[in-house]
Design a protein that fits this description.
Layout lengths: L1 H20 L38 H4 L4 H19 L3 H12 L15 H13 L7 H13 L7 H13 L3 H13 L7 H13 L3 H9 L5
Amino acid sequence: MFNVLQNCCKKFSQTALLNSNSSCPLPNQNYIPPKLLKPSTPKQTFGIGQFISDDNLPDPESFNYMSLEEAEYQRIAYKCFEAYAGLNLIKAKYYKANCISRGHVDCTKAGIDAKEKDKIVAELFKEVADDEANEFPKAQLIYGDFLYNGEGVERNLSEALKYFERAADNGLRVAMYNAGNLYYEGTAGKRDIKKAIHYMRLAVYNEYPPAIKFCENNNIPL
């Protein structure tokens, strides 16, 4: 791990040195590389399969306006995640998958077949979601969404429900809403109003607006 970080720092330092020797203006000496973790932009619709992700990685729109320094920072960060993922560190696999899915990685340079990108990302999220020794609710939620939409994997609503329930039981209110919705509609198998109300009320208790609206529209006592 030390060698990987050391190599990353060397590459970043070399890039900064090249910039300082060029005719381009020097970067602000007080410049601090942006944190990789920052709030993502919430989606405005709340239908099932359109969860609000609070994984806090930069959204694709902000990536379009990155400076060269910021782009280099993202590239180095991905290299670190990739290296640690190779050491079978679960959290690194999660962030590696997130970087790829959000377009922060040049697939060609990273040796990723563009046609296989969704499949690779889905497999990484599944591996993280299935790790019982290291519960990662966000990965459970995201992989459930992949299963719901048939993204990178064959669409399977009953399997999606299982991952939503696991994430819900681990405290993610979006997963509570998704699980409640699937149980209420019965699209993932047998309709179960009791479980639907259970998960919807949990989401309401956690102040999730779409769940509150759902209960009001379907006359479910809050």
